[in-house]
Design brief:
Layout lengths: L1 H26 L9 E7 L2 E5 L14 E4 L2 E8 L6 E3 L5 E5 L3 E4 L5 E3 L2 E5 L5 E3 L7 E4 L13 E2 L7 E4 L3 E7 L10 E8 L5 E10 L9 E9 L6 E10 L31 E8 L8 E5 L2 E11 L5 E6 L4 E7 L1 E3 L7 E2 L5 E2 L8 E3 L8 E4 L1 E3 L5 H34 L3
Parallel strand pairs: 14-19
Antiparallel strand pairs: 1-4, 2-3, 5-29, 6-9, 6-28, 7-8, 7-24, 9-10, 11-12, 11-23, 13-21, 14-20, 15-16, 16-17, 17-18, 21-22, 22-23, 24-27, 25-26
């Protein structure tokens, strides 16, 4: 009788632990990045009543006789199945699609699937809930992100401005084939220097009409000032030639001298190239103009953008420019179930998890990053309620065994009367 009681007690202890795990899973059913746990039980060793015997020439073999002594907790492991990615509309909310963990903290690192990011007062990219600094790589002074370097805190400077000097100007439109030598065409051209200041200059086109310069060739000249007479020439000139169809003949055109436009004090020299390939010479009015130029004025930071898939962090400027400043790293483990759970929905490297394999998202078996999404808990409430019923019924059944054993012991005691 005593054996059955202790066997039932071991079951009661296990069912309590089982219910503890179910309770924790249900409590975190809405916790972002939470991974549910499962319980696996094992029977305890069995007492040998008879070892049995092997067959002989005269008699068959006898099987062993054993009585089990209860149940034991095998292990509790985390379930790392993918949780549903929930759209938040916030670009700095990140989720992992596939294997991998975000890395938080430079020392005593923690690994988590919870990717709600924000910037602290010092510009560090941190986890919004815990304040732990997100690990990754920062761009160097030239904007290059070297992912071969060890990961570190990502610091983002947002109180900065950025401008872009004009490198190319594209002209389009028509230079009339009816124009005469005394009808030069002047185009006003605005370009930006390296400080973002707008510099205005002009390009004057003069049609040829001599033996040396045929009528299908136009001479162009950068003008420093056309408001005076005579106009002041600038630096930069050449010729463009059109074919019989009025389309530019680039092989016959002469680029001429390099262009040099005056700039603001302290700015780098401004030497853009001019693309004439969109110009035509047709029997129509003059309509030549600047169609585009790639310079931009100074702009302020308006947003921090984390790109999906690779986790590259960029600053977005009010002038339309963008600048790469860092990249979020991911870690994966050979045996993620060997990780130890920590606080704030995080994990710590365990003795049997293997070392963290840190790298770029989408490489080395690491999943991709989904920006504007958070990964929901992977708790299956239907399964957990079923597990709750199993734990409850298992506890009840073991309680009945104890009650029955007690009644039998009572009957045994009553034999004395």
């Amino acid at each position: 009788m005593i054996r059955s009681m202790f066997t039932a007690i071991s079951s009661l202890s296990l069912q309590q632990k089982y219910l503890d795990v179910v309770s924790n899973n249900l409590a975190n059913a809405n916790t972002i990045g939470f991974k549910s746990s499962r319980v696996l039980s094992q029977d305890q060793f069995s007492q040998m009543m008879s070892p049995g015997s092997a067959p002989t020439t005269a008699q068959g073999g006898i099987n062993p006789t054993q009585i089990g002594l209860g149940v034991n907790l095998g292990y509790i492991s985390s379930n790392f199945t993918q949780g549903v990615l929930q759209s938040t509309g916030r670009n700095m909310d990140l989720g992992v699609q596939g294997d991998g963990f975000f890395i938080y903290g430079n020392e005593n690192r923690r690994y988590s699937r919870e990717g709600s990011m924000s910037l602290d007062s010092e510009g560090n990219l941190v986890n919004s809930a815990s304040g732990l600094r997100t690990q990754g790589w920062s761009a160097d002074a030239s904007g290059v992100i070297d992912t071969d370097l060890p990961v570190d805190d990502i610091n983002i400077v947002t109180d900065k401005t950025l401008a872009k000097a004009t490198e190319e100007v594209i002209l389009g439109g028509n230079l009339s084939s009816n124009a005469t030598l005394d009808e030069p065409v002047t185009i006003s051209m605005g370009v930006y220097d390296s400080l973002g200041a707008l510099q205005t200059t002009s390009v004057r086109f003069t049609r040829g009409g001599t033996a040396a310069v045929p009528t299908n060739t136009w001479t162009w000249q950068v003008m420093a000032d056309v408001s005076v007479d005579p106009a002041v020439l600038g630096t930069g000139d050449g010729t463009i030639t059109f074919d019989a169809n009025g389309q530019i003949d680039l092989t016959a055109s002469v680029p001429g001298a390099d262009i040099d436009i005056p700039v603001s004090e302290g700015a780098d020299p401004l030497t853009p190239t001019i693309d004439f390939s969109k110009l035509t010479q047709l029997a129509a009015a003059n309509s030549a103009t600047v169609t585009s130029q790639d310079g931009l004025p100074a702009g302020n930071v308006t947003d921090v953008y984390i790109s999906p898939n690779d986790g590259i962090i960029s600053l977005m400027y009010s002038n339309g420019m963008s600048e790469q400043v860092g990249q979020v790293a991911l870690a994966r483990f050979t045996n993620p179930t060997g990780l130890m759970k920590g606080e704030d929905t995080s994990f710590l490297a365990g003795l049997n998890s293997g070392d963290a394999q840190i790298g770029v998202a989408g490489t080395g078996g690491r999943g991709s990053i989904a920006s504007s999404y958070l990964e929901a808990s992977n708790v299956d409430m239907a399964q957990e309620f079923t597990n709750m019923i199993l734990a409850q019924r298992g506890f009840q059944a073991s309680s009945r065994v104890i009650t029955t054993s007690d009644e039998i012991l009572q009957e045994l005691v009553n034999l004395k009367r």
